[in-house]
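Forum: Protein Structure Q&A
Topic: Joint prediction for protein chains with partners

I've read a bunch of threads here and the consensus seems to be that you should model interacting components together rather than docking separate models afterwards. I'd like to see that in practice. Below is the full input, 443 residues plus whatever partners are listed. Could one of the regulars post the assembled result?
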Amino acid sequence: VTSSTPFSVTLVVNGRSVTREAGGHLTLLRWLRENADALDPKYACGEGICGAVSSCVVLAAQVDGAEVTTAAGLTGPDGSLNDLQESFHRHHAAQCGFCTPGMLICAAAMLSEGAAGSREEIREGLHGNLCRCTGYQHIVDAIEECATTGTSATTR
Amino acid sequence: VYVKPFRYERAASLAEAADALRGLEGAGRLIAGGQSLMPMMNLGLVDVDAVVDISRAEESRGVAEDDGYLRIGALTRHRELERDPLVAAHQPLLAAAARNVGSARVRNRGTLGGSLAHSDPAAELPLAMTTLGATYEVTNGRETRSVPVEEFHLTYFTTSLGSDDVLAGARVPKLGPGWGWGFVEVSRRPGDFAIVAAAALVRLAGAEIVESRLCLGGVSERPLRLGGVESSLTGARVVDVPERVPEIEGLEPMTDTSATGEHRKHLSRVLAIRALQDACARAEEAA
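Posted by a regular:
Agreed with the consensus. Here's the joint model:
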C-alpha cells in the first residue's frame, strides 16, 4: 500500500480551470507549481509558521474543486497591478519579495472581510506572516491606505 | 523538503474513514485540516504510507446544543470555535483556547479533532477539554463509544484511539450559573505553542470559592489536572487565591530551547494563580 496513487484534481487557478491526474500526495503548493504554472507561491518553512504560502500544508486533493487565487492572480488580465499591489509598490512594501505573495493574499482577505479597520487590526491580521527584511511598517502602511480609501483588493 | 509519496484516499464520512483505516491495516493516517500532520511530513518527522482524508465529512463539523451540553464535531475548525455564538454563550473558555492556537492561517484550516488526536501536551485544546471535563465520541464505523477526556490523552502525542478508530466529536458541559473561567498562557510569540498554559473554572458564592477546576498544559506528558489545589481552594476567599496555590509538587517539566524546567515550574504557579483570578473576576462580573 506504500506507493503514491494518481489522483485527478480540478482547480480553478486564477480564473483558469486546470484538471490534472497527479500523485495524491502532492501538496497544493507543488501541484500549483508543477501543474498550473503558478510559480509565485514558493516553498518556505513548510511548517505553516512563516505565512509565505499556506499551500505547503494542504494537499491538492483535499481542495479538489476549489478556486485558488495566488498573488499573481490579483493582477488584471493585461498584467496591470490591482489597487492593493499598486499600494504595496507605492509604499515600498516589498523588499526582498519572498514574503510578498503571502502578505498580498493575507491583506486581500483582510480587506475583503472588512478586518483592516485599524493599524492594530492589520497587525493582528498579519500575525503569522513573517517578513525577514522586517519591512512591516511599509506593509501596514500599504494595507491601511487601501482600507481607508475603500479600494477593492480582491477583484481583478 | 518534498514529502515521500504516499497513497491518498478520500472518505465521505467517518464510517467510510474507519473502513479505509481497516483496509490499510494500520498503515493509514487520518488527515483533516492537516495543520499538524503536514508540517511533520514536510519536516521529515513522520513517514506515512497512506493518508485517509476526512476533511469532507461535513456531518462532523459544527457546534450544536444538547441539553446541558455542547456537542462539537471533530471537523469544526479553530476559527469556527473562536467565533461560534453557542461556544461564546455557553463555554467561552473554549473560544479563548482556540484563539491562542497558531495564526489565522492555521486556525482557518486546523480542526478540533486534529488537535485533540495529535495530543501535543502543550496544545491549547486538549488542555481546555481536560479542564471542562469533556467526553469524546469515538467511532469505528460500527459502534460509537464515549471516552472521558482523561482516558483519551495518555502521554506525549499518544491517545487511546485504536487503529481503526476515528474521533467524531466532543461533548462539553455548558458553563453553569455562578461559574467563571480563565485561560492564560506564556509563549515566545503570540500563536506559538505555549511554554506553559493554565485554564481554570471557578464557582463562587459571594466572595467565596465553592468549586473549581484547574489544569496546566506544557508541564507534563499530558494536560495536568491539579486536584490537590482545587480541594484547597474550596471555601477560600477570592483575595486569598495566591496563598492557597502553593508551589506545585512533583512537577518536573522538561527543559527545551524555549524554557528551562525551572522556568516552567515558576510559570506553573504564576499562571495557575492568574487563571484562577481571571475566573473569579468573571464569576463576580456574571453575578
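The helical segments of chain A are 28-35, 83-90, 100-112, 119-126, 136-149.
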